[in-house]
């Protein structure tokens, strides 16, 4: 068995050397699709109210403003997070350069209309945020 592992190791090093001999050249991804993945941990007993706010306000504001909706939302059944939400980044990495994007402005204007006033919209956002005890956000590129 040790001989087999030694031969396999030598073979892998030989093959990897073949790739190292090719000239390296710059190459961009062709039409990369970027996604923002957010994992949320809600305070105990608060997830249902948080989901009500998402459905009654956030989703309606996105629909009204014609801003991107999540591509996927999962209720987690294991691990430390309660929910995982995935958004397609329509502008790719370039979208990360906005402090406040035009879509953010349109969304908050719709949220204000639905809530009745900017103060009420902010109050609802604050209530939702009070239910979150932890979150983690990651950036990912579509693998295939």
UniProtKB/TrEMBL annotation:
Residues 1-20 form the signal peptide. It comes from the Bacteria. Keywords: Signal. This is NIPSNAP domain-containing protein. The lineage of its organism: Bacteria, Pseudomonadati, Bacteroidota, Flavobacteriia, Flavobacteriales.
């Amino acid at each position: 068995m040790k001989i087999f592992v030694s031969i396999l190791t030598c073979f892998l090093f030989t093959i990897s050397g073949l790739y190292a001999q090719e000239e390296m050249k710059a190459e961009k991804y062709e039409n990369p699709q970027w996604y923002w993945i957010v994992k949320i941990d809600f305070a105990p007993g608060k997830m249902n109210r948080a989901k009500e706010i998402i459905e009654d306000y956030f989703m309606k504001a996105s629909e009204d403003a014609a801003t991107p909706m999540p591509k996927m939302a999962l209720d987690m059944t294991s691990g430390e997070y309660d929910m995982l939400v995935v958004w397609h980044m329509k502008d790719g990495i370039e979208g990360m350069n906005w402090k406040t994007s035009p879509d953010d402005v349109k969304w908050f204007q719709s949220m204000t209309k639905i809530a009745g006033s900017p103060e009420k919209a902010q109050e609802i956002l604050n209530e939702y945020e009070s239910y979150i005890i932890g979150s983690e956000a990651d950036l990912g590129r579509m693998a295939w």
